[in-house]
Structure formats: structure tokens, C-alpha cells
């Protein structure tokens, strides 16, 4: 166990070093000609843009590797299980709290030069995973996922859900991946974790692919529309404290009409800017609507 943990720490440390290295690439691109491979004065070879992109690709491969993905999931689980609630922004938050207490104690109005406080947008009129007055999906546990998938497949005409494993001979006690599919529409892989408080199965990440793409779950689709769906689902998940399996499966079922349901706001199937279908699904007015990214404003 200790050796596995040390390997994960080494993998994340190596990734951190690589990320620090590629942060210098954008500034370097601005300082040198894109097409030049030699210095125009001395004729000496210079670092090429192609090498920069190869370095970026290498970092992307590292991020998608199994050991890094397992290390990230393990780190997240350890953070959730940590009872100390350590926060790297403690000092900043403490200063902000002391400043706000001083303003309240002196009853002093902020000066005109003071930045206005951030007021979060009112999101009470919209929801992503269920109607506002609907109950959350039932909590599922590791031992009940297989039965849940079987019952789900019996009630669906097109959508399918399966436990995904690297090899059929290897079945984990706690499944780490679900495969959701809609024929001729999409395939989605749901990366799972388990809550430290009640052991519930929760969704950490969803990656969407085309129905005929043969790519591993931790990679990325080659098609822009499926990349957008993955990105929008990630944004939806950030609005929730945790996402249960049933809620995510219910959301994915709504993408059955991805390529023929027009946007509820503009009435178009393809967006004007990106020529992509509505990839956002939200509950509004008691029903789920399809919307383009630019048509989701209140």
C-alpha cells in the first residue's frame, strides 16, 4: 500500500514539474518567429514551435495516464476523508473576515474606490440534474451498482448502462467506471468515487465520446461536439456538492435528442458561432430544455 501511494506521489510530483515547464511556452511563442527553425542572424538552430506542441501533447498523455488518474481520484478521496478541513486560502479568508468585521463594527461605508463585492447570480430558477421540487436520486452503493444497471436497462428502449472494466477477468469490489451509451448518439464514461461519510457511489468525472470512437475512458473525443458535452457536464457538476449516479444517468438520458432538438431560447439547431447543437440541458418551468451555451443566460 505504501509503495502504491509513493508511486502516486511521484507521478503527481512529475506532473507538477511538467506543468510548470509548459507555463513558459506561451511567452516563448511571442518572443520568436513561429516558422523559423534557425536564428536569422547567426544561423544557429533555435527551439521550434513543433517541439513545444510535442511537449504539450506529452503532458496531456501524462494527465490521461492510468497512474495519474488513479492518483488524482485517490487524492480527492483523501481530501474528503480528512477531518482537519485544511484550507490553503485560510490566511486570505481570515484577512477578508477581519476586514468585514471591522466595517461592521465601525459602521463605515466603503470608499468609492473600493471594489464592489461579488454578488452571485440568482440560480433558483434553473437546475441541471432534476426539477427544483424533485427528490434526489436514491443513494447507490458499490454492491448495488450491478443490479441498478440491470434494472435500468430493462426499463429503457435505447439507453444502456454497464460496469466497465479493463479486462473481463478482473472485477473490482468497488466499480470505478460505468459505461453509458445511446446508439448512434454518444458513449459516456462515468468515473466513480465513494463518499467517506456514507460510502455512497458518487460521480467524479464524465467523459463523452462519439458512438463509434474506440478510445480509452481517460482520453478525449476527437470531435468538438462531444468535447463540449463533456465540458458542460463538468460545469454542471461544479454547481453540486456531490452528484449521485442516478442523477447523472438521468441527465445523460436527455441527450438522446442531441442532434435534432432545437435550442429552447433561439429556436436553432446549430449555434451561429460554433455550428454545434444545444449541449446544455437544464430544468426550467417544470421541464428540461435544450440550450446552446450562449443561450443559457437568465
TrEMBL record:
PANTHER family: 34 KDA TRANSCRIPTIONAL CO-ACTIVATOR-RELATED, MEDIATOR OF RNA POLYMERASE II TRANSCRIPTION SUBUNIT 27. It is found in: Nucleus. InterPro entries: Mediator_Med27. GO terms for molecular function: transcription coactivator activity. One of its GO terms (cellular component) is mediator complex. Keywords: Nucleus, Transcription, Transcription regulation. It comes from Ephemerocybe angulata. GO terms for biological process: regulation of transcription by RNA polymerase II. This is Uncharacterized protein. Residues 84-121 are annotated as: Disordered. Its main location: nucleus. Belongs to the Mediator complex subunit 27 family.
Amino acid at each position: 500500500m505504501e509503495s502504491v501511494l509513493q508511486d502516486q506521489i511521484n507521478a503527481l510530483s512529475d506532473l507538477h514539474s511538467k506543468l510548470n515547464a509548459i507555463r513558459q511556452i506561451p511567452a516563448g511563442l511571442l518572443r520568436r518567429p513561429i516558422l523559423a527553425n534557425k536564428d536569422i542572424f547567426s544561423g544557429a538552430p533555435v527551439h521550434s514551435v513543433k517541439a513545444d506542441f510535442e511537449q504539450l501533447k506529452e503532458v496531456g498523455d501524462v494527465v490521461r495516464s492510468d497512474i495519474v488518474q488513479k492518483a488524482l481520484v485517490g487524492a480527492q478521496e483523501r481530501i474528503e476523508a480528512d477531518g482537519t478541513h485544511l484550507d490553503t486560502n485560510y490566511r486570505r479568508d481570515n484577512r477578508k473576515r477581519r476586514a468585514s468585521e471591522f466595517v461592521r463594527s465601525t459602521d463605515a461605508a466603503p470608499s468609492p474606490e473600493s471594489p464592489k463585492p461579488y454578488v452571485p447570480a440568482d440560480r433558483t430558477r434553473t437546475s441541471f440534474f432534476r426539477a427544483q421540487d424533485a427528490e434526489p436520486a436514491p443513494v447507490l452503493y458499490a454492491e448495488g451498482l450491478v443490479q441498478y444497471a440491470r434494472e435500468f436497462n430493462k426499463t429503457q428502449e435505447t439507453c444502456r448502462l454497464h460496469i466497465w472494466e479493463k479486462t473481463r477477468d478482473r472485477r473490482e469490489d468497488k466499480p470505478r467506471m460505468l459505461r453509458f451509451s445511446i446508439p448512434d448518439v454518444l458513449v459516456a464514461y462515468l468515473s466513480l468515487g465513494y463518499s467517506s461519510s456514507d460510502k455512497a457511489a458518487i460521480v467524479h468525472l464524465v467523459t463523452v465520446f462519439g458512438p463509434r470512437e474506440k478510445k480509452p475512458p481517460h482520453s478525449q473525443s476527437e470531435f468538438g461536439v462531444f468535447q463540449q458535452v463533456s465540458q458542460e457536464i463538468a460545469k454542471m457538476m461544479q454547481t453540486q456538492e456531490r452528484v449521485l449516479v442516478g442523477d447523472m444517468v438521468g441527465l445523460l438520458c436527455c441527450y438522446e435528442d442531441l442532434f435534432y432538438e432545437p435550442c429552447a431560447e433561439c429556436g436553432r439547431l446549430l449555434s451561429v458561432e460554433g455550428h454545434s447543437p444545444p449541449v446544455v440541458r437544464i430544468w426550467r418551468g417544470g421541464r428540461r430544455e435544450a440550450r446552446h451555451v450562449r443561450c443559457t443566460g437568465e
